[in-house]
Structures are given as structure tokens and as C-alpha cells.
Amino acid sequence: MQFIDLKTRHLLIGDKINARIQKVMEHSQFILGPEVREVEEKLAQYTGSKHCVTVSSGTDSLLVALMALCVGAGDEVITVPYTWISSAEVIALLGAKPVFVDIRPDTWNMDETLLEAAITEKTKVIMPVSIYGQCPDMEPINRIAQKYNLPVIEDAAQSFGATYRGKKSCNLSTIGSTSFFPSKPLGCYGDGGALFTNDDELAEMFRWIRVHGQERKHHHPILGINGRMDTLQAAILLEILEVFPVELQKREQLGQTYSGELVHLDGLETPRIGDYNNSVYAQYTILSDQRDDIQKSLKEKGIPSVSYYSVPLHLQPVFENLGHKEGDFPIAEKVANQCLSLPMSPYLKKEDQANVIDAILRIKSP
Predict the structure, then answer these.
(1) Are residues 237 and 186 in contact, defined by beta-carbon separation less than 8 angstroms?
(2) What is the rounded CA–CA span in Å between residue 199 and residue 129?
(3) Which residue among 5, 200, 333, 351 has the highest number of C-beta atoms inside a 10 angstrom radius?
(4) 327 in helix, strand or coil?
């Protein structure tokens, strides 16, 4: 059994993807070719955003967003300690300071009730993270941000396709940022990412920054990076977008099946989908103080599982200079110590999912 099945989709639509690739090979516009513009238009339409600007990775999308907002030395950016390191890494790369607020015990997203206390005169940006496929409670986050005149970046690397109060992830704040890493809900065949905004000036800045800060040929008014998405990846995404709505339905069905079978087990927490949310289940993650036993039981049946973010960011050696210690963010630490992600992809077979559930039941219901 594969943890994330990336092969089955290609068996289904590989001929169409290969045709897209062949078309790129024929026109040979490998950088910012017509497929890049086409996929940007379709992604913007999908989210309801005015602008989509594709970039070379999800990490670079966060970096470009912060650069467009002029984040630099002496600034603070508020985010969460329970996430992939990119969320805080890009802040530090610009010389700014990551400021962490703990996550909620139910959805494991940013605890918006702790946000205002973390804001200082040095705060430049608020960056909540959409974890495991669902969005944070963005309405109060945006309300607090507006009170202090702060922009919000939604790190939506795991939630493209999800909705919050009827609106799509990536169109919930000043900037939406996502990743098209192959294992993401909408993944390409390599690295890729995108930025979304309804602000014309920010969109223009994104486009400059991704080509070395170039406004026009040989004219660079700002610093930038080499952050363009390959035309080949854009072409692949165009075809995967065609099956994406069906894949999301399958993800939701699989997530509901997992929860329906596991929610009643003592000492095990299943994902709590927040009010006004739906989840794309980028991963299906459970919490248990018997995580190691469950993982062992799964392994004995040949079932892969992963403990994501098992060391939260505030305890990572690279951020030792921030002066945090164990106990500073207790919810993030609990989730990091107990989390286990189970096999999840649109093409997970029913019998394979049943085997996963059975292996867990053997531990929790001896």
C-alpha cells in the first residue's frame, strides 16, 4: 500500500498529460510559455481571485509574498509552530523574526483568540497556516488584522480546493499562497506554487519578483528571485485540474469513512472540521497517546504512516535564538507528540482503507 498514490491518476489520464507535454516540446517555450498564462487564468477563476501568479514552489510563493509586502530586518511575522518549516524559514531568510502563537486543540489551526496578544509595533504580517486540508477561522483573523492595519497571508499549501464560509482557500485574505508539490491535493510532477490576490499592485510585484525583480527587459527596480514555474509543470497542472473536482469528492468520502470508523475510540482523536469549513484532507491525521503502538501495528500489516511535524518549529535547533522552551506552546507540542497521518489519496482503495482501520482497531479495541 502506498502512503500517497500518485501512480493511479497517471494511469487514468497519462495519455492526456503526455499530449500536453508534447505540445510544450513542440513550441519549446519552456519558461513562461502559454500554458503558464492559461493555468493562472484557470486557477484564478477556480478560487474567485482576481489574480493568480504561479511560481517555482510553495516555499517560494511564501517568500515572494513576504518580499512583496517589504518584510525585512527588524520586522515580525506571526505564524504557528505546528507546520512545515517553510512557514517560518522564509521569514527568517528575510531577516525578520517568526513570532509563534499556539494552535487550537480542535482543528489544529491558528488559535485566533491568542493572536491579538502577539501583535507588537514590529508586527508586519500575520500568516496563518491551513493545516491538513482545512482553513483556519479566517474571519476573526482578518478582523484583528484590519484593526491593526496588517496584511494577512494564508499559507494554503495543504488546502487548495477547501472552502471557508463558501469561499475558496487562497481567496480568504490579502494574499493566498499554495504549493503544487506532487503530494499536495492539487499536485504537479515536480515543484510548483502560486500566489493569489485581489490587489493589482501586489500581483504586479509578484510578477516582478519571480523574474529577478524585473519590471521590463533590463530594468530591475526591486530585488527578486528566480521564481518562475516551468511551462511543463503548468501544462501538467492544466490536465490534473480537469479531474480535480472528482478527486476532492473522493477525498471527502475517504475522510468521512475514516472518521466514522475511528471517532468512537477512546484515547484517539480524529480531525475536527471547523464551523463553516470543508476539508480536502491533504492528510488524514489522528492523535493518540498510543501513536507508536498504532504505527507498529500498521507497519506489521505493510501499511505506511507518517508523523508530520513531530518537532514543532519553536523547538527546532535553527530557531534556538528565539529563546523558546518546552511548554511554551502546549497544544502544538501535544499534537506533535501524538499525531499520525494515515494513507490518503483520491485513489486509496476501499479494501486498503479497511485494512488501515482494522489495524488501528486491533490496538484500540483488543
Answers:
(1) yes
(2) 21
(3) 333
(4) coil
- Give 286's strand partners: 340
| Tens digit of each residue's pLDDT (9 = 90 or more) over 123-145 | 999 999 999 999 999 999 999 99
Q: What is the mean pLDDT of the chain?
A: 96
Tens digit of each residue's pLDDT (9 = 90 or more) over 238-294: 999 999 999 999 999 999 999 999 999 999 999 999 989 999 999 999 999 999 999
Report the Cα 234 to chain-centroid distance in Å. Answer: 18
Say how far apart CA 222 and CA 68 lie, in whole Å.
10
| pTM (whole model) above 0.90 | yes
Angle, alpha carbons 11-17-23 (nearest 5°): 150
Contact 109, 274 (CB under 8 A): yes
What stretch of H or E contains 284? Answer: strand 284-288
Which residues 6+ apart lie within 8 Å of 325 measured at CB?
none
Task: Please give the helix or strand (H or E) that residue 195 lies within, else none.
Answer: strand 193-197
- The three three-digit cell numbers of residue 20, written as one number: 500536453
Q: What pLDDT digit, counting tens, does each position of 200-221 carry?
A: 999 999 999 999 999 999 999 9
Residue 310: per-residue pLDDT: 95
Q: In Å, how far are 28, 32, 55, 183 from 21, measured between CA atoms?
A: 10, 14, 19, 20
Q: What is the DSSP letter of 320?
A: G
